[in-house]
Amino acid sequence: MELIVVIAIIGILAAILVPTMLNYTMNAKVTSANNTAGSIERAIDNYLLKADIEEYGMFVIDEAVAEIEIKIIDSVWNVTATNTELYFHDKRNKWRGSGSGYAGKQLVNSFGAEEELAVILAGMYPELETGYIKCHLTGGDCDALYYTAETNTDVTMPEFGDRGWSVDTFIWDGANAGVCEEGYIVGTAPVLPLGSED
Predict the structure, then answer these.
(1) Measured between alpha carbons, how far is 17 from 19 in angstroms, rounded to an integer?
(2) Residue 180: is it exposed, middle or buried by C-beta count within 10 angstroms (0-12/13-18/19+)?
(3) Which pLDDT belongs to residue 27?
(4) Is 187 helix (H, G, I), strand (E, B) or coil?
(5) CB atoms within 10 A of CB 88
(6) Which end of the chain is more exposed for a tag (fewer CB within 10 A), N or C?
(7) Residues near 1 by Cβ (< 8 Å), separated by ≥ 6?
(8) What are the E-state strand segments in the chain?
(9) Do residues 148 and 185 lie in contact, with contact meaning Cβ atoms separated by under 8 Å?
(10) Which DSSP letter does residue 143 get?
(11) Segment 183-198 mean pLDDT
(12) Region 101-124: what's the mean pLDDT?
């Protein structure tokens, strides 16, 4: 009889603690992804500031809007930039639209801005073998970004607005902030909290 009571108590404790531990683990992964997204955002901002100083940054400072998409495949960072006509093109690092690189080396002989950014980010995050990053730029600043290390394809996220996110909250998977509709953990900068469908 005592053994049955002990087993029942252990079962009750397990029923309470297991979901709590699973939720704690998921929250820790989301927090880590958000921290990485914030770090990548700062790294891109620093690169764009360097580009402005060296005169291959954005041409129309206040109104220029562009996006950068990064796909990480087998540790190779593939950077694609939109609206490249908004950047200065008379300097060494020209924005051509796309480029690839990995830690310490570009993949083409002609070294452009996209390759340089790819090599810098790959060197900062050598542990990332797979991933997807999309960032919104306004006036040469990265004002919103999302990142996942679980796939190298785009995920369901809200649209970017004029300066950053188009929304203040996001429904995510309907239950967990930082888990997209496809089930991947996504980090955001600035962080997008969980919203409701109301």
Answers:
(1) 6
(2) buried
(3) 84
(4) strand
(5) 17
(6) C
(7) none
(8) 65-73, 76-81, 98-102, 105-106, 130-138, 141-148, 160-161, 164-165, 187-189
(9) yes
(10) E
(11) 88
(12) 80
- Does residue 38 come out as left (phi exceeding 0), alpha (psi in the -120 to 50 range) or beta? alpha
Name the residue type at position 113: A
Q: What is the dihedral of CA 113, 114, 117, 121, to 10 degrees?
A: -170
Nearest to 124 by CA among 67, 191, 42: 42
Segments making up each domain of the chain, as ranges: 2-189
Q: Which two tokens stand for residue 148?
A: 């996942």
- Residues near 16 by beta carbon (within 8 Å), at least 6 away in sequence: none
- Tokens of residue 182, six digits: 């496809």
Q: What does the DSSP 8-state code read for residue 87?
A: B
Q: Over the stretch 16-73, which tens digit does the pLDDT of each residue have?
A: 766 665 566 888 899 999 999 999 999 999 999 888 888 888 866 667 889 999 999 9
What's the longest Cα–Cα distance across the chain?
85
